[in-house]
Specification:
Elements: E1 2-7, E2 13-19, E3 22-27, E4 30-35, H1 45-60, E5 66-70
Parallel strand pairs: 4-5
Antiparallel strand pairs: 1-2, 2-3, 3-4
Length: 81
């Protein structure tokens, strides 16, 4: 697990935690949990454990009042017939 603290461009306290392929960034009272497994963000047991740990950190942080999961998926264009 990797921790980083700082200040966002608007002056709000910010912290970032990286757990495997998952990152959690807290800015103010909002935590964004992102999955980083391009190109398709496939799930497996290890990734689910990382997500559980990230949301447990959010739950334990008294400053977090909202947690948002962000999963971006790449889609291949449909073949035209």
């Amino acid at each position: 697990m990797h921790h980083r603290n700082g200040v966002a461009h608007n002056g709000t306290a910010m912290s970032e935690v990286t757990i495997g392929d998952v990152s959690m960034t807290r800015t103010g009272h909002t935590a964004i949990v992102e999955m980083h497994r391009p190109p398709h963000n496939y799930f497996d047991v290890g990734l689910l454990q990382n997500l559980v740990e990230a949301f447990a950190i959010c739950d334990a942080d008294a400053h977090v009042s909202a947690s948002v999961a962000f999963f971006l998926r790449a889609y291949a264009p449909r073949p035209t017939a």
